[in-house]
Amino acid sequence: MKQTLQLKVSQQLRLTPQLQQSIRLLQLSTVELNQEIERMVQENPLLELGEEWGAPPAVVSSDNPETASESADSDAISAEAESTEVKAEREEDFEHDPEWQQDNIVSYGAPEDDDLDGPQIPDKPLSLREHLNFQTCLSQISEREKIIIGLLIDSLDDDGYLLQDLNELMTLLPVELNIGPDDLQSALQRLQHFDPAGVGARNLQECLLLQLQAMPSNAGHRDQAIKVVRDYLEILASHDFGQIKKLLACDDESLRAVNKLITSLNPKPGAQFGSHSERYIVPDITVTKRGSVWVAHLNANAIPRLNINHLYANILKQEHHSARQLVSQLNEAKWLIKNIQQRFNTILKVANAIVERQQQFFEHGAIAMRPLVLREIAETLDLHESTVSRVTTQKFMYTPRGIFELKYFFGSHVATDSGGSCSATAIRALIKQFVQDENPRKPLSDNKISSILEQQGIVVARRTIAKYRESLQIPAANLRKSI
Q: ω before 196 within 30° of 0 (cis)?
């Protein structure tokens, strides 16, 4: 076969590093963005975080989203970040400007506070294990018993339960400790008398029994509650109050008192302690009402103040570092600032489009939510659906009705008799409202809720009602029935 050389012209789509960075920043949450910025600041000496965060927000009207999105490009991001970008572009070729070093040196220092004698350390909430270990140290028991109780404390989960079998736990202990089953059982019984009541239980039934047994013996209906939890807990869970009434041979008033006492117990006694670090949400968007229209604007506290460290650039210049490396780091800093600006501009555009379409939600709540899909926003803003999906994931909106993820405003539709459509979110809100207003002694079944919606012109199958009810964590009708 003869070998020949041929020229072929073709087009290929390749993502530049700047575009890849822009896509990556767009899908990050605000917390993840701040972590990414801190990493970039550590890697690039020309980047620095400002002493303050954010700037006064720029409100963009929802009346004209096209005009609003155009004005957002210049007004939405903080003035400091914009001036930094302009300054960076003007000084792109700073190595050829002999006056650059003198005109652009920025001095900075740590804030002074004469009123503070030392570092202010915030109080840390006591964890469950610390609380139990403190009680162990105060107990009048031998050091060996304290060690065994400490091993059991380390085996508790965050709710205070000992889910590991004692025999299995004993096989994991060092042989030289010479700990037997009786030692573990004795230590567990002592642990179960610690505060909070119910800690060290191996299941829900034992947890409730420990709390009831810790009550004074003359507490009202205590003995009856212990009998119900010990012998009839499954019947109580199924809300078969008639059978429990017969088994206890009591009247309705006593049965209500027993049920109230049991439901007042804490099924997770360890959850009240600070075992988990809180997950904070920083809203990207805030919504306010201007006149008769709801408008969206960026949350100033969510916008990082990122600057170019001209002082460090001057030092590198004076020390005769490679000009090519310096220009590369400066360009990377400019790309990051520009991509962050683009990220917030895109979020604001999408938020504006959402707020414009969901005006009734902000006026009347979830029952007025209209059906909305990603494609509708993408076509309006001339964006790809995947871009809208990235923008609405882990981005939050602060409204007078609460904080919602942007994805919350999207949902499928259900047909109505009039030929229109109703949002699935609105149907869930109606189901929740029906359940809240129902008679506790005659709760609404899924079929009944479906019939009520059908009377309002909304056709929803019973199995769909059940699916929506379960998503709202609402029990079935027989479990909602009270005495």
A: yes
Q: CA of 210: how far to CAs of 226, 267, 358, in Å?
A: 9, 11, 50
**Do residues 423 and 413 lie in contact, with contact meaning Cβ atoms separated by under 8 Å?**
yes
**Residue pointed to by tokens 């006593």:** 254
CB 73 within 8 Å of CB 352:
no
| Adjacent-strand bridge partners of 47 | 308
Q: Rg of the chain's alpha carbons, rounded to an integer?
A: 32
Task: Give the pLDDT score at 413.
Answer: 67
Distance CA 401, CA 74 (A): 29
Q: Which helix (H) or strand (E) holds 59?
A: strand 59-60
Which residues 6+ apart lie within 8 Å of 71 measured at CB? Answer: 58, 60
- Angstrom distance (rounded) from CA 132 to CA 284: 40
φ and ψ of 415, to 5 deg:
-70, 150
- Domains of the chain in start order, with CATH, are 17-104+281-392 (no CATH), 412-480 (1.10.10.60)
Quote the crossing angle between the two packed helices 462-471 and 424-437, to the nearest 10°.
80
Give the model's confidence band at 234: pLDDT under 50 very low, under 70 low, under 90 confident, else very high: confident
**Whole-angstrom distance, CA of residue 234 vs CA of residue 254:** 19
Give the three-state DSSP class for 200.
coil
For residue 343, count CB atoms less than 10 angstroms from its CB and return exposed for 0-12, middle for 13-18, buried for 19 or more.
Answer: buried
d(CA 200, CA 78): 53
Mean pLDDT of the chain: 78
Distance CA 401, CA 286 (A): 11
SS3 290: strand
161's CB contacts (< 8 A; 6+ apart) are 200, 201, 202, 203, 207, 270
Q: Is the bond into 283 cis (omega within 30 degrees of 0)?
A: no
Closest CA relative to residue 404, chosen from 354, 356, 367: 354
The structure tokens 């007004």 sit at 75
Confidence label for 248 from pLDDT (cuts 50, 70 and 90):
confident
- Residue in the block written with tokens 């059906």: 371
State the Cα–Cα distance between residues 21 and 377, nearest whole angstrom: 23
Q: Three-state DSSP class for 353?
A: helix
CB 169 within 8 A of CB 181: no
